[in-house]
Amino acid sequence: MSPPLVSVIVPTFNRPEMLGDCLRSIEGQTFRDFEVVVVNDAGVDVEDVVARWNKRGNMHCIRHPENRGLAAARNTGIRAARGEFLAYLDDDDLFYPDHLETLAGCLRSGNPRVAYTDAVRAHQRMEAGGYRVYRRDIPYSLDFDPQRLLVRNIAPVLCFLHPKACLEETGLFDESLPVLEDWDLWIRMSRRFPFTHIRKATCEYSWRPDGGSMTSGGREVFCRTVEVVYGKHRDLALADPRVAATQRTYLRNAKLLLRLSRVLGEQSRVFRSLLRILEKIYL
Predict the structure, then answer these.
(1) How many Å from the N-terminal Cα to the C-terminal Cα in the chain?
(2) Which residues, 6 or more positions from 15, have their beta carbon under 8 angstroms from its beta carbon?
(3) What angle do CA 236, 69, 65 make, to 5 degrees?
(4) Which pLDDT score, from 0 to 100, does residue 97 have?
(5) Predicted confidence band at 200 (pLDDT cuts at 50, 70, 90)?
(6) CB 150 within 8 A of CB 187
(7) Where, residue-wise, is CATH 3.90.550.10 in the chain?
(8) Could you tell me the CATH superfamily of domain 6-207?
(9) pTM of the predicted model, to two decimals?
């Protein structure tokens, strides 16, 4: 059997119901030349969930014997992938039907090496024992700028498609990073390959500020990891004083949000208003 053009890497951990919706969105793609590599990071068994959507025999499941984190799960999927191009989808997110067709069509033109689309953010809250979407927006829609990328990420990981061969030059996801491992990879990749932004929303990621997506503890980990990523790429930032100054401001504001989150709470009206203001500044 010839290898597929695209491999979709799907890490999962203890969310079998959400994984089913995720796989359904992949199987519903208008572009059909793909495989799916599901990596169960030592969570509950999901073999039956994968089998339910594996109608064409193009979905494969790998299980970690112990929990190793998101970056390691993605790397396991990458090593097993047979496709020329790699796409990423976490188990609680969705592709819209034209996602792979849009990205693969762009990369097959041969000009950019890395392409990314826009993503819809689905704000969710717990209702009647399950998460329900109560609002959608598109916070990221940024054209590629390698200097901006040194300050903060430009799009969620599910927006991207790139050749697997790129990783031979950049290395894989940094497994020492608890979060922001995709941002770190894009920085490394941006120094070697051209990126292109497709101004079209082709996917959707979940946002659950009640603890499923962000808490004050999560913000603390976020701030520490931003400092680590800045340190890894310090030489690039020091080459442009504007970047170094913007990094300091961004990190200062992130730490301010951490302190306010502890005092006011993630769900307070004042905190959410401040968050929206800072979001507009940086996005």
Answers:
(1) 44
(2) 43, 91, 92
(3) 145
(4) 98
(5) very high
(6) yes
(7) 6-207
(8) Spore Coat Polysaccharide Biosynthesis Protein SpsA; Chain A (3.90.550.10)
(9) 0.93
